[in-house]
Amino acid sequence: MATRGIYRFFDGDTDNKIDVYNHWDNYPSGAASHLYKMLCEWYNSNGNTLTRFVRSNPNAEIQIGDCPLGGIEYLYEIRGLGNTAKIRAYKVYDNPSPDYCIFDGDLIQFIQQQSKEWAFEIKPFKETLGGLMNAEQAKSILRERFGALYILNNPDKFNRENPNHRESMKVLNDYVEHFPELLDEQDVKEAVFAGV
After folding, report:
1. Cα(33)–Cα(143) distance, rounded to whole angstroms?
2. For residues 138 and 129, is the Cβ–Cβ distance under 8 A?
3. Cβ(4)–Cβ(22) below 8 Å
4. Which of 148, 121, 122 is nearest to 134 (CA)?
């Protein structure tokens, strides 16, 4: 049986919005799982929150115009970018009202709260030089085409005196300090030892 949901993405502090319909698993812990996936998939670090959500959830359908709420069980209103986004969640009975608001706060808090309800494991989020993130996101950022690992593993392009090399080492060491499990990744370990 489907638990249908609408994810309503707002453009900054304006009332401009785009609705995304998702047919399956949109109860709060399922929504948290969809949103966590959006934040953590390695290929999904670029784009606004709406783009990243649709890209990481193949069943998500962008709706043109206002999406009718008939038959919708949950509505999630999301404002902001990535890890710093805010979310308001409603149990909908065909019309959202403040009376049916079940969560109003930070996206990360919503994910952390709901992960306890449904046994999906999340990696903790920590404040780093790159902002609030978890180990999966740090690993993804390090591996981007011109991320720290690219710079450190291409010494012919970026020698140790190059500002990009120094900045990459700073970022890499910060991430490893916050997420020691990154040293379990062979390319991270090699870069840490090669960059010293």
Report:
1. 23
2. no
3. yes
4. 122
